[in-house]
Amino acid sequence: MQACTEDAQSRLVVQKKGKWHLKHGPLSDYDFAKLPKKQWTLLVQEVNHFLPSARDLLKKFSFIPHARLDDLMVSYAPKGGGIGPHFDSYDVFLLQGMGSRRWQISAQQDDQFIADAPLRILKNFLPEQEWVLNAGDMLYLPPKYAHNGIAETDCMTYSIGFRAPSFHELMMQFLVHLQDNLAAEGRYSDPNLQLQAHPSKINAAMLSQVNSILKKIQWNRNDIEDFLGTYLSEPKSHVFFEQSTNPLTSDLFLREIMRSGIRLNLKSRMLSGANKLFMNGEISEVGNGAYHFLIKLANDQEILPPLSMNEEAEEVLYQWYINGYVEVVE
């Protein structure tokens, strides 16, 4: 079970005697053995990093650009289980698996949370509508739309989340991007410094000079594309790629993918720009021939034989293979 491993992010939420209890994974057999018969929920994030079938499910949502995709979270709950009324900061499709779950929703603006709860549970939840979802049913919720899911029977729910970053987050992350990529010559100086009556005062000359310096900060659409590509494909901090201790040689690697095909590692995030590819936060600028081949990999996550690619595409793929980003189709 993924909830018991270090690689997966999991949470166990238990409601007992009107109180909420939270335990983060990895979980143990003992954690499950002591659970009550009802009113608890197990949540596992990024199931698409571990199960090819989970990635196949996400492909059904390709009508939304890959740049928006967050992950597939799976939750299991016996009767009465849930995590309380709450908001999410992303778009989410709630697809019901086995069993049934009652969903209550509200467009309320009251966002006060229960003070002593380990989760951000709404204090004054006022449901406006509700439905019972059975296997195969799905509910879409936009960001900041209050909702509460309660298991009617033992059930599983698949949450397909799509990122909806706030303006503040985008601005701050873009400034970080500029900090890492901006080059500026020169250094502040004041050769015509005048004696001033109040040495603590920031004088007009300094304000004017710094204003002129800051006006040199400029960017264009290419800078924005690079920012979005690296930011939105950057793996989360807990995600790591294992590199083979005995990798194939480049010639053998090419023979293998020609025979079987190439696919992304389940943890990889790949996006495309104008003649450039973004792989796990890295930029690869390529020529037209390599681009038209590699964008197929970005779109479909795999390419099956026959493969027709040029030498540049071969070199890029082999480096990604060495990094653990792609693998030969088994």
Tell me what you see in this structure:
This protein has 330 residues and is an alpha+beta fold. 27% of the residues lie in helices and 25% in strands. The protein is built from eight helices and 16 strands. The protein has helices at 29-33, 52-59, 167-181, 204-214, 221-233, 250-260, 288-300, 311-323, and strands spanning 10-16, 19-24, 40-44, 69-77, 90-96, 101-106, 129-133, 138-141, 146-151, 155-163, 262-264, 270-272, 276-279, 282-285, 302-303, 326-328. The chain has a seven-stranded antiparallel sheet with strand order 2-1-3-4-10-5-8, covered by helices on one side. The protein has a three-stranded antiparallel sheet with strand order 7-6-9, with no helix packed on it. Strands 15-11-16 form a three-stranded antiparallel sheet. A hairpin with a 2-residue loop joins strand 13 (276-279) and strand 14 (282-285). Helix 3 (167-181) crosses helix 5 (221-233) and helix 7 packs across helix 8 (311-323). The chain is flat, with a radius of gyration of 25 Å.
Silhouette? flat
Strand tally = 16
Distance between termini? 23 Å
Category by helix and strand content: alpha+beta
Helix content: 25-40%
What is the strand content?
25-35%
**How does the major sheet shape up?**
7 strands, antiparallel
Q: SSE order, as H and E?
A: EEHEHEEEEEEEHHHHEEEEHEHE
Strand order in the largest sheet: 2-1-3-4-10-5-8
Average pLDDT, to the nearest integer? 93
Specify Rg, calculated over alpha carbons. Answer: 25 Å
Number of helices: 8
The oligomeric status of these chains comes to single chain
Low-confidence stretches: none
